[in-house]
Amino acid sequence: MTNQLADEMPIHDFPTATSVAEFSRNIAEVKQKITEAALRVGRDPADVQLLPVSKTVPEERVRLAIAAGCRELGENKVQEAKRKSENLADLGVAWSVIGHLQTNKARDVAAFASEFQALDSLRAAAALDRRLQAAGRSLDVYVQVNTSAEPQKYGLPPEELESFLREMPQFSSLRLRGLMTLAIFSSDIPRVRTCFTLLRTLRDRMRDVDPQLVGDGGLSMGMSGDYEVAIEEGATCVRVGQAIFGARQVPDSHYWPDLVDSQSEASAPAAPAAPAGPAESTTPAPNAAE
Ligand SMILES: *Cc1c(COP(=O)(O)O)cnc(C)c1O
To answer: Where is the Alanine racemase N-terminal domain (predicted)?
Structure first.
């Protein structure tokens, strides 16, 4: 049993942390699982960064998480990240934007973020670079790849990755940390795993073509439900929200709309007015459809 990979989706129960002690406990548990997953495949646990994701979490509770040791926080939406970065500015947190960027928000990201994980268009790269140059700042970025072939997911199709990466050096304020992906939402672990394997394979292939092409060559992949699988497949950064902060009420379709054309700036996702009501499923429905 010692060398067996995770092949079953555990049953998740993510209790809401409401004190520093509860945050410390949740973080310690996640770190323990990170360590175990890394050791299962002979990796050094220190090579896996934990990025806690605080989206939808009110600032009072984010403060508790920071008191429990979080120094970097991930947020999906620029507006929310900007607000939190301003209101929590006294605490010295580094903010990572991990969701799709509309180019009209590039200026905000350039102003407050230290990292952007969802780069998937040259337009966004150019907009960010222009703002960063003007501000005399630089930004760590990951290029997002769509590894699940779901048309509604953001990210570059794998076949466009190489030509995209070849354009990156012209944006000198963007420091390329590696590749990022979201796996398919499924309880079928082998299928989830294929997404992570694909990202690693793409990284390796790009490195073979040109060692400079993928920057640091990092792999940001894995969330609360699948980060152990991601680590087994080579993740160097896992983005974990619910396992640290507690279950989210907002349906995931709010973050991964199923009908948005990812190339179209005009079709910004309309935010659902309220958390899932009785008519709406609380599961990450659109993306989970098999
Ligand atoms: C919300 C989010 C996560 C974390 O998801 P959890 O289920 O809360 O762990 C990871 N990556 C992205 C891009 C996200 O928006």
So the answer is: 47-248
